[in-house]
Every structure is written in C-alpha cells, then in structure tokens.
Amino acid sequence: MRAAVLSVRLGIIGGGVMGEALLSRLLGQGLYAAEEVMLSEPSPERRQVLFEQYSIQTTDSNVEVLEASKVVLLAIKPQVFEIVAKDFQGARCETPPLVLSILAGVPLSKLESVMSGWPVVRAMPNTPATIGGGMTAIALGTRTMAEHGELAENIFAAMGQVVKVPEGMLDAVTGLSGSGPGYVAIVVEALADGGVAAGLPRGIANQLALQTVLGTAELIQKTGMHPAELKDRVTSPGGTTIAGIACLEELGLRSALIEAVRTASSRSRELGRSANEKPPS
User: Fold this and answer.
1) N or C terminus: fewer CB in 10 A for the chain?
2) Full DSSP string of 50-62
3) Per-residue pLDDT tens for 61-99?
4) CATH number of 10-170
5) Coil, helix or strand for 100?
6) Which pTM value belongs to this model?
C-alpha cells in the first residue's frame, strides 16, 4: 500500500531485516519523517506490514523510488543485485540521488558501472546497528563530493559509530566488525557454558557472561585503556585470572580469533571478485 507521493527525501530498496532496522533507527532519531520515506519491496505482505508499522510510503517499483528520492539506501541481498541493477539503468532522474549501498561483496566499481554518473557510498554496518550500538565503515565512490560523505556519516551515525575508510579496507572491516558480533556471541555463550560446567545455574551463568563482556567493553571504551593494560590490572601473581589466561593461551583463543578475522576478510574479497566478474546483462 502506498500513500500519495510527497516530497521523498529517503528511498529504501529492500524491506528485509536490515532495511527495516535502519528505517526504524532513522525515524526514531528524527532524521526523517515517515511521510518523507518511500520503500520498495516485492512482497505485498511485507509492504503492508511496513506501511502499518511506520506509516511510510511503499511501492513495488524500484524505479519509482529512484526517481523520487534524494538519498537511496540499497538494502537488498547481493544475490539479487543483477535484477535490481536493471532498474537503476532504467530510472530517469533529473538529479541523481546519493546511493548508500550496504551490499556485502559488491564493490564500488560494480555499483558505479550500473549507476552511471551517480554518487555512491559503500557502507558496512553490523548487526548492533539495529539497536543503535552499531559500527559502520563507509567508503566514498569516485563521484561523491564532501557533502555526500557528510550526509552518509550523519545517516549511519543514527545506528552507532561511523568510520571512513578506503574501499580496500572494507574486506578487513567485514572480517572484524561485520562478522565480529558472531564471534562475540560465541565467546559469551562459551563463558556461560564454562560457568555451568563450574556449577552455576544456566540463568545466572548467562547473566554473568553477558554483563562481563558488556561491562569490560564499556570500561575500555570510556577510559581509553588499552586492552592489555586492563588485562594486566586484573591479573595478580599466582591468581585465578592468570591461571585462566594461561589456559586460553595454551588452547589458542587469541590465534583463533585472529584467524577468524583473516578468514572472513579473505572470504569477503572472494565475494567481491565474484561480483565484479559478472556484469549485469
């Protein structure tokens, strides 16, 4: 369902989990009013849900969004990019909108080859962006101006922190902060399992593990303390912490996390090469 087209400042292509999460944050932070947003989504049921939930304009036409918007958030799955690319090539825009792509593995060169002459920013947000605790890295395309970069930073700042990097670093960003919530979730789960193994009830073990990780991260962030310094401060001679750390070193936790980031980064590069090898027909 779609209301009459008003002055559309933000267009969103893709009404999935991340698209809705970013929409919710942007509306909640007051960056955009509901009537200034138009979202395209192929599923009628999904369009109805988003219309009722957020009172935004919805449509099944990507071209309509592209031609009406000043900023377009591209929040689709990389696998369907080839299909959506045809809509970009068919859109007729007097002033091309700024395109913010959150597609993993689709490089700026690929995006710009489809969006001829359009300013494009590639972004890599992570899952905590859905609650405003995210980390987003952005890389500016060859046709972006200073004001485009500032606008992109303001938009993604509604989801958490933002850092600007060269595109060549985005694969490493993907391996670290993009995939990182998965690693941290495993660490939290493993700590809780260790608590249960040591005799704690599951509920208490979960609470202790989660708050320990959360509190430690907040302490490091607020004090600016290096993680190694914090580790040294809580490690007393012959104590429990050094015994546990020695076990972690022996079992290779540090190396495992380093290799996880490197492996995920490598996989991101592979996906990027694959996307670049298949131009849209």
Assistant:
1) C
2) HHHHH--EEES-H
3) 999 999 999 999 999 988 888 889 989 888 888 888 999
4) 3.40.50.720
5) strand
6) 0.86
